[in-house]
Every structure is written in C-alpha cells, then in structure tokens.
Amino acid sequence: PTPGEPLLQVQAVRKQFGGLVAVNDVSFEIRAGEIMGLIGPNGAGKSTTFNLITGVLALTSGQVTYRGEQVGGMPSRAIARRGVSRTFQHVKMIPDMTVLENVALGGYMRGEAGPVRAMLRLDREEERRLFAEAERQLARIGMADRMHELAGNLALGPQRLMEIARALCTDPALLLLDEPAAGLRHKEKQALGAVLRQLKSEGMSLLLVEHDMDFVMGLTDRIVVMEFGTKLMEGTPAEVQASPAVRAAYLGT
Ligand code: ADP
Ligand code: MG
User: Fold this and answer.
1) Neighbours of ion ligand 2 (CB under 5 A)
2) What does the alpha-carbon distance between residue 112 and residue 114 come to, in Å, rounded to a whole number?
3) Which residue lies with its CA nearest to atom 13 of ligand 1?
4) Which residues contact residue 166 at a Cβ distance below 8 angstroms, ignoring those fewer than 6 apart?
5) Angle at the Cα of 146 (from 200 to 161), degrees rounded to 5?
6) pLDDT grade, residue 2 (50/70/90)?
7) N or C, where is the chain less crowded by C-beta within 10 Å?
C-alpha cells in the first residue's frame, strides 16, 4: 500500500445484541502507514467494532471496505488472507508448548481452527515453512532468544509480543491490536511501544484499541473515541486530549 492511501474504511457499522446497540453506526478510515487509536471507557464497543472489522462477528448493518473491496460479512480467514491480522484482548496460547510452536501454529490457524486439527493437517513441507516464518517474525520483534521457552513461563509483556509475532505470520498490511498494553508493567509497555513503532516504520498500519490513554497518546497518529457504542470524536492525540467531551467520558461526569 502507498503511504496515506485509504486502507480500511468502516462505514456506518452497527451491531445489535438483542435490544442492546453495542456499536451504533460508527464510521472511520485507517490510512496506510499510520497508527490509529480506538479508545473509550469499558463497554464503549471497541472490541465489538474490532470483531466486526475482522469478521469474528456478523454486521447488523454497515460496510467494511479493505483496499476498495467489501470485506464486511466475509469469514475472518478470508479477511486475514487479504492482509488484515489481529490479536485478541485475552492472550490465546497453549502454555506447555514453546513460544516458537505457539507462533507457528497461530500462523497456520490464523486465529480460527482448533490447534489439534491444525496439527493433524500439517505435512512436513508446510511445517518447515511455518516454523521458518515463525522464527523470522519472532526475530523481527526481538524475541528470537526466547523462542524455545514454554509459552506459559513468559511474563505477560513477552506473551503479548508472542501474540504479535503470531499475527505477523500472515504478512498483514494492517494489524489490529485489542488492548495490548492492558496489565503490563511500565517497562513492558515501553518495549511494546517500541515494537509497534518499528512495525510502523516498516510500513505497516495499525489499529490500536486501548483503555490506557497515556499509552495511546504517545504512539498514535489519529484517535477515534467511542462512548456507549457511538463515535464521540476523532482527531490527533493533542485534539483528543484537549476535548472536554473526552474528559467527561473518561471521568464519567
Ligand atoms: P469495549 O471493548 O469497549 O469494552 P465491547 O465491545 O466489549 O466494549 O462491548 C460493548 C457492549 O456490548 C457492552 O455493553 C457489552 O456488554 C456488549 N456485548 C459485547 N459482546 C456481547 C455479546 N457477545 N453478547 C451480548 N452483549 C455483548
Ligand atoms: Mg474490549
């Protein structure tokens, strides 16, 4: 993608769970080469928006367009194949497998099929290819020295990096991260921020869902703020920080 090119367009996207409107006609655009933030209080509809973009949830209405193609309603695997990859809010891993194995399997599953099924389907050639790719992506984010450790032995910070390596195995142009900094120590947040900046410098676009305002402010080019399922505002970090409406949403006043 050319820097600045509209990569992902979210148009009047809506999700209802019975009578609850979790996402209420939200629109925004992610451009190639930028880090976009999606913030808002708990329950604002951030994860649901994420799941609509990545095909994990079916749209009630609205459109999602990736590089000019309608992807809204496609299965998540089809969307991943086009270059959109994601991590989940809660780390998904097999604790008694190594970091490398977790990343290699994730690259195969693209977050969908069950791990056992995935393993049974592998032939040797494919397995070699997956492990080589997993190793490459772990090295890319500075985790090469930990790839033979058991995933369950990692602290939360490295676990989140492992998830990013896994998401990178499908060679995405757009990476979506759901609360990657949640629960991390200060140093781990800094390490994560450095990795995300590096990915941006390599030309990747990112959508970062975060509850942690400080983390998002230092990292993003633009921010969409959600509250009660709707888009409250969109702007640069400075504009968002200066907004009385955003302060009110966060402080609940
Ligand atoms: P956020 O990620 O911003 O904290 P969510 O997108 O997870 O918010 O949730 C938005 C709203 O939708 C919340 O009120 C939540 O309880 C509700 N919700 C989310 N997922 C479901 C679901 N699968 N079924 C019913 N309600 C849901
Ligand atoms: Mg969430």
Assistant:
1) 46-47
2) 7
3) 43
4) 87, 102, 103, 106, 107, 134, 137
5) 30
6) confident
7) C
Taking CB atoms within 8 Å and a gap of at least 24, the contacts of 73-80 are 76/110, 76/111, 76/112, 77/110, 77/112, 79/53, 79/54, 79/55, 80/54, 80/110, 80/111, 80/170, 80/172
Name which residue sits closest to atom 7 of ligand 1, judged by CA: 47
Q: Give the pLDDT mean for 196-208.
A: 96
> What is this structure's pTM?
0.90
* Reported ipTM: 0.98
How far is the centre of ligand 2, averaged over its atoms, from the C-alpha of 2 (Å)?
30
Taken in order of first residue, the domains within the chain and their CATH numbers are 1-83+173-253 (3.40.50.300), 91-171 (no CATH)
